[in-house]
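User
New here, help please:
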Amino acid sequence: MPARLLDGVSLAASTLETVSAEAVDFAASTGRKPCLATVLVGDDPSSHVYVRMKVNRSRKVGIDSRRIDLPESTTTGELLSVLHDLSSDPAVDAILLQHPVPAHIDERAAFEAIDPRKDVDGVTRTSFAQMAFGEPGFSSATPGGIMRLLDADNVQLAGASAVVIGRSPILGKPVGMLLLAADATVTLCHSKTTDLADEVRRADVVIAAVGRPEFIRGDWIKPGAVVIDAGYNEGNIGDVEFSAAAERAGLITPVPGGVGPMTIAVLLDQTVQAAKALADVR
């Protein structure tokens, strides 16, 4: 029996309805809308598309968007100065540095220049530690979206065997921490993993985040497993061989329409939460 789809479009829509209502309430109580600042360095076409989508969606739900575009020649020091200014600006509630940044920039230093209270993309060390220790804070947007998808479909993670393929600091590692916090038994796989297919075959939950089209083969999937494809490759192809995997899985995310919509929904939800928390502090 083919797998049932985990519908990120519908869940994102319902999430954004709540975000919009909270943004209206915030504006009514403070006299201004929540504000998300997006910083983009360079001319990467995909990054420009992603930022434009986030800006447009922000405005639709009642969040002000301040967009800062910097040239490819921007130095690490210049970028840090921009991020420090945004971090100290009381009119800015949330900061998103679109990644990846150009190769000559120290991306980790740039992330750490963001005030953790405004780190709605969950990229700072503080946010990672909060995810690892199960403390209140902002999750990385895509991992947070994945966890909300699993929760919405009542996927039981406690005691489940979860395999994450990919160990990036903004996806693989943080989603591993969130799965651990949900009491799953987590295996992080990567380019040096031997017998990857066997690791996947034992998994009750598979999170694919490698950035290689159809790298995870359908016949690797354990019958009835939950498959989350966080990859997006040219031609609307994910990291999982979808048609073959869907014949074996119990639940599976489509590409597009699965994880992607939830990434933006979590980002904007966390923007409103950041605005509310900072307003309380002020």
